Amino acid sequence: MTHFLPSLPSILFLLAVFSTTTVNLCFADGGFCSVPSVTETEEEQKHLYWKVTNPTLSPDHLRDLPGFTRSVYKTDHALITPESHVFSPIPEWTNALGAYMITPAMGSHFVMYLAKMKENSRAGRPPSGVERFLFVVQGSASLTNASGAIQKLMVDSYAYLPPNYDHELECVESATLIVFERRYASTMDRLPEQIVGSTDEQPLLETPGEVFELRKLLPQTLQYDFNIHIMDFQPGEFLNVKA
Ligand SMILES: *[C@@H]1O[C@H](CO)[C@@H](O)[C@H](O)[C@H]1NC(C)=O
Fold this sequence. Notes:
Helices cover 4% and strands 40% of the residues. It has helices at 40-45, 50-53; strands spanning 11-18, 21-27, 72-73, 77-79, 88-89, 94-102, 111-122, 130-139, 141-145, 150-153, 157-161, 167-171, 175-183, 195-198, 213-216, 226-233. Strands 5, 6, 7, 8, 9, 10, 11, 12, 13 and 14 form a 10-stranded antiparallel β-sheet that branches.
């Protein structure tokens, strides 16, 4: 990734590491042109991950012009910016729209989509044998498991749900989630467990030779067959390692 501009306020990377392949997914501020029309008050009202779902590439009046995109699809990575998201109903979900970003049809062994849950919405279950990871970028949703434990997922919180894990995901007002689903592949005897957490509760990890802040959202044990890395860059910072 070489799209680092000194004017970017902060860049979030979600790095999904799947057993044999590493996929860099970047939800970055867009920035060939700044958007001077946005006042500071408007900026303050925007939620933490506003740029995940809102085009920031061009001035308002150019936003929907064909060809105005920074999206790039390659065999080993993709940068999919908001102007490329196309929302449609998600099978088995109620009152929700999804935009698929990565699918097995593109050669991956996982699916990644944005789910926009509207008022009184409910998620469908993943297919049998498929694990699910949710990350909240806007609003909040509640997760109920088979024991009846209800957990509220706010912005920046996440949940890992093992394959065939009985759960309900519901939303009263609105929520936008990043969802990863994948056919569980580990051959460990011990199955993974449900995990619910928040990014800021995770310890900062050492990144020798690098300046960004690194957090890992899932345990690094073999029964979890993938991990999600959150990499925070300050303005002007970039990866030193050549990918
Ligand atoms: C449901 O979640 C609660 C709280 O995290 C946990 O104690 C309980 O074991 C979970 N139940 C199942 C079936 O995983």
